[in-house]
Design a protein that fits this description.
The complex is a heterodimer of chains A (506) and B (285). Chain A contains 12 helices and 20 strands. Chain A is α+β, with helices and mostly antiparallel strands. The radius of gyration of chain A is 23 Å and the shape is globular. The chains are: A alpha+beta (506), B mainly alpha (285). Chain B: The chain crosses the membrane at residues 21-44, 86-108, 115-137, 143-162, 201-224, 244-269.
């Protein structure tokens, strides 16, 4: 499991998603409609490692909830396109006031919930309040706390007043599912507006979705989608080989890919991901309080070799928290790049010419132990001794995330646009730079996205130069599918998997 | 085997017995040798990642390398040391606690005897893995925690065996004679009980050694044993699982060594039983 799915995370799991409806950028072979005829009544079998804990995305259901239900069963007022732009979905139109504090949304008319009820502004109000409720575990809750008031002047208008300007407000709304305000038992059932209804959920095994006849938009290209859940990647790959599933949402190891690459019956797709592997220092704990020590450690680790070890030829190097799909991306891989001589020099300047020793809290699941082993061997070359302490995800949450009781740790951060967390000095990594905090705050209150982007680029560069953390690499996003399939999302970033455009040859 | 069979072929029986022991000792010694040599010499530094990702056998690496480019044979040698350490450590803990508890239980009377017996049964029924997880949660995931957990679980098995053996010895006439003549019970234990139970005990401990090695590999496989970068065989198997189709050596090598060691100690235990067990010895001579 990936820790990052849980609500403690940063910017929720949904953004930057490959929106199937919009044309996708390069390498989108699978998106083009294949020449052959396709079966409108096909059942698409999807293989996944991420079974939902429950079906409510405000109740800690995990990334499996997003994967199976987001966009398929539930829809938001907005959705995100492949290049990170916001598209209108259930909102037909919206207007922001000049001071940026009031947003007026006009809802699409003729939208029906699966239960038959028509969508009204009351449902939108209810859905927003559900995310903001005290017991909500939604990852977007903290971002949406700027919402001061939600008014519903008529059945198709929603007026939201904010306590302060928030340029990401509309973007954040794309994470809010619009749910029927009268729906009950949302942990085990659903009532959304999406192109599929939930047919059956067999815990521990499968979740099936059926095409919704009353959908307001274009009907799904297939009749049924079944998510099959596996506990381990080998079993999942075997299921693909034996045609038990048609597509695997996210491959977690490059070594199983050879068998698919050499086989005409399968297609291996290498998309964009936003998942970053971090060596996160506790910037408030010695010796990582010293910028030079952090820079030295970053420079002493050969990220390219680590990426090669873990992912074969896949994945990318990053020099900061920002993946290429975020609007404020800049290639910073040259900052604190691999340079052992420079690392030694920096250590000497910091007064650690003879090195030092620290404990690395390492989550006990892949790829963390491998990365920890690699880091230990790399840092030994500059005289730093690493003591690897393996911990469970629960321990990580309590010890590292909540109590900040660590010196350095490893963690994967799955979300897009999560650079802004370096503006929060109370976040677990304890990076405290007043200027950065100010920039992040200003960026959120910016009037134009150009201003926002400019400010966050500054944040990006500053955190990179300060080596706030060591960003080891960006994961690849690998989707493997049967060649009979087309139209599946390629960048199903970390969790979303829109299934409605998937076509299966008859 | 009937009495007359044995009478007719004592030499053959002895030969088979010693062949088992010899085979067991050879296999065990092989691993022990690897473990001992690893203390003073390794083909590569344990941290050396210069080998290239999943390189095949040959080219300076006898068995190839792992994902990080570390030499597999080096890891196997370190792994054999960890396996032997885990086996010896667990068995020592099991023997110390097991024999003490078992002897006490055997001497206990009435309700205390029943309680101890029930307690041991419950302890035996408690899954080793679960016990190990508790120990690891209370301490941290280290080889020491794993060994402690395995040792504790096995001490119950040893204690139950010792209790039965001791009770049997205590029922003998010569023990009754010794005790009525005023010999203290500690002296009875040292002078009469232990000499009579040790052959069976040693055989059982040898078997427990094999089980302990397997248990440690299992725990390390689950990430509850020796932490990285220590190359426990179990961890190696776990790491090699994803790359089994492309680089099978990574999984086969630790798997084979695990089998060699466990079969080895089991054969030793078999051989020892035939040689040492008074019952077998009496029947066969």
């Amino acid at each position: 499991m990936r820790l990052s799915t849980s609500t403690l995370y940063v910017t929720a799991t949904t953004a930057g998603l490959a929106l199937v409806l919009t044309a996708c950028g390069g390498g989108s072979g699978a998106k083009s409609t294949s020449a052959g005829t396709w079966d409108k009544n096909a059942t698409v079998n999807v293989g996944s490692l991420y079974e939902p804990q429950n079906l409510d995305n405000t109740a800690g259901g995990g990334q499996g909830v997003t994967e199976a239900l987001n966009g398929n069963v539930y829809e938001g007022l907005f959705r995100l396109t492949d290049d990170g732009k916001v598209d209108k979905l259930l909102a037909q139109d919206y207007q922001a006031s000049a001071d940026g504090l009031t947003y007026t949304f006009t809802l699409r008319s003729g939208v029906k919930f699966h239960s038959g009820k028509e969508l009204t502004s009351a449902d939108v109000k209810y859905s927003l309040e559900k995310v903001l409720a005290d017991d909500s575990q939604s990852a977007r809750k903290s971002n949406l706390e700027v919402v001061k008031d939600i008014a519903t002047p008529d059945a198709h208008t929603v007026k939201v007043t904010l306590s302060q300007k928030s340029i990401s407000f509309v973007y954040n709304l794309s994470y809010v599912w619009i749910i029927n305000s009268e729906a009950k038992e949302l942990k085990t059932s659903e009532d959304g507006t999406g192109p599929y209804t939930l047919a059956k959920w067999t815990r521990g095994s499968a979740l099936s979705l059926n095409r919704f006849a009353g959908y307001w938009g274009d009907a799904a290209a297939n009749k049924q989608v079944v998510f099959h859940y596996y506990k381990d990647a080998t079993a999942l790959n075997n299921a693909l080989l034996t045609n038990a599933v048609d597509v695997v949402t996210s491959e977690q190891s490059p070594d199983a890919l050879a068998q698919f690459k050499s086989n005409q019956s399968y297609k291996v797709n290498d998309g964009n991901s936003t998942t970053k592997l971090l060596l996160a220092f506790n910037d408030k704990a010695k010796p990582f309080t010293d910028v030079k020590v952090r820079q030295a450690v970053s420079a002493a680790i050969d990220d390219q070799k680590l990426l090669e070890s873990v992912w074969g030829g896949y994945g990318k190097l990053i020099g900061s928290m920002v993946p290429p799909t975020d609007p404020w991306y800049e290639d910073l891989t040259k900052v604190n790049a691999y340079d052992v001589t420079k690392a030694k020099k920096l250590l000497a300047e910091a007064g650690y010419a003879k090195g030092f020793s620290f404990t690395l809290d390492t989550p006990n699941y892949d790829p963390h132990p491998t990365a920890a082993t690699f880091i230990k061997s790399q840092l030994a070359k500059v005289g730093i001794t690493v003591k690897i302490n393996t911990i469970t995800p629960d321990e990580w949450y309590t010890k590292v995330y909540k109590n900040h009781d660590f010196t350095a740790t490893l963690q994967e951060h799955v979300n897009d646009r999560d650079l802004v967390w370096y503006g929060n000095p109370d976040f677990y990594w304890g990076y405290d730079n007043k200027q950065v905090t100010q920039w992040v705050a200003q960026a959120e209150e910016a009037t134009t996205t150009a201003q926002q982007t400019e400010l966050l680029k500054k944040v990006n560069r500053q955190t990179a130069e300060d080596a706030a953390s060591d960003w080891l690499y960006l994961y690849p996003q690998i989707v493997v599918a049967n060649s009979k399939l087309s139209g599946y999302p390629l960048n199903g970033l970390n969790s979303q998997f829109y299934a409605y455009d998937i076509k299966k040859q008859g | 085997m009937t009495y007359t069979d044995v009478l007719r072929k004592p030499a053959e029986a002895r030969r088979r017995r010693s062949a088992t022991l010899l085979a067991g000792c050879t296999l065990t010694a092989l691993i022990a040798l690897l473990a001992v040599v690893s203390l003073v010499w390794l083909p590569y530094d344990a941290d050396d990642t210069s080998g290239g990702r999943l390189a095949g056998p040959g080219d300076g690496h006898l068995l190839g390398t792992d994902k990080l480019g570390r030499d597999l044979f080096t890891q196997l040698m370190t792994g054999s040391r960890i396996a032997v350490e885990a086996g010896l450590g667990s068995v020592t803990i099991a023997a110390l606690i097991g024999v003490t508890l078992g002897v006490l239980a055997a001497f206990a009377q009435g309700w205390l005897d029943d309680t101890l017996a029930a307690f041991l049964d419950i302890l035996i029924a408690f899954p080793t893995l679960l016990l190990a997880m508790l120990v690891v949660a209370a301490r941290s995931a280290t080889l020491g925690s794993a060994v402690l957990a395995i040792g504790l679980a096995q001490s119950a098995v040893v204690a139950r065996l010792v209790r039965i053996l001791v009770k049997r010895v205590l029922a003998q006439d010569y023990v009754t004679a010794a005790r009525t003549s005023g010999t203290s019970w500690p002296r009875t234990v040292v002078g009469h009980v232990l000499p009579n139970i040790w052959p069976t005990l040693v055989v059982n401990l040898a078997l427990q050694f094999g089980l302990a090695v397997l248990a440690e590999a299992g725990l390390s496989y689950l990430g509850l044993g020796a932490p990285p970068p220590n190359a426990s065989w179990g961890r190696m198997l776990q790491e090699a699982q994803a790359t089994f189709t492309t680089a099978p050596a990574g999984a086969l090598a630790p798997g084979i060594l695990l089998v060699v060691l466990v079969v080895g100690v089991n054969l030793v235990a078999d051989g020892l039983r035939d040689t040492l067990d008074p019952a077998t010895r009496r029947r066969r001579s």
